[in-house]
Amino acid sequence: MEVNITPPVPPTNSNNSTSESLASSFVERINQQEKEFEKTLADDEEYSLLVMLHDGSLIDVDVLGYQNPDMITIEGVNEGNHNIKLLLHMYNVQLILVKFKKESDALPIENKIGYLQHIKKNK
Fold it and tell me: I need a labelling partner for 117 at 20 to 30 A (CA). Which of 7, 75, 96, 98 fits?
């Protein structure tokens, strides 16, 4: 499963920022970490990218986007199965990559909600 990354938004105030400190670079580094994590999966495993909020609740990420210089946008599904969109400063983002075993009757990736739904079915 690869998280969709929204197209870049033209930088604002980028004259004062190095490219490494921009949200676009931050999202690219997350994407690289995700690809490296995916390489560690066994054939019977899959993964989800989750966001942990300050209260400990989790969001299953569908779309990770950004607006330079420092805003991250996250679209996904929360534990209550509600579609959400988060707008965060890039320094407030806590992401988790989680491995789990594929279900034999799993839906195709494009029809599957993700890890949080997987946990609910197995409780």
Answer: 7
The whole-angstrom separation of Cα 37 and Cα 100 is 13
Please state, for a pLDDT cut of 90, what percent of the chain lies above it: 64
What's the chain's length in residues?
Answer: 123
103 or 104, greater pLDDT = 103
d(CA 49, CA 34): 8
Q: Look-up: residue for tokens 């988790």?
A: 96
| Coil, strand or helix at 30 | helix
Structure confidence at residue 1 (pLDDT): 65
Q: How confident is the model at residue 123 (pLDDT cuts 50, 70, 90)?
A: very low
Q: Helix-strand-coil percent breakdown of the chain, rounded to 5?
A: 30, 35, 35
Nearest CA to 117 out of 106, 52, 28 is that of 106
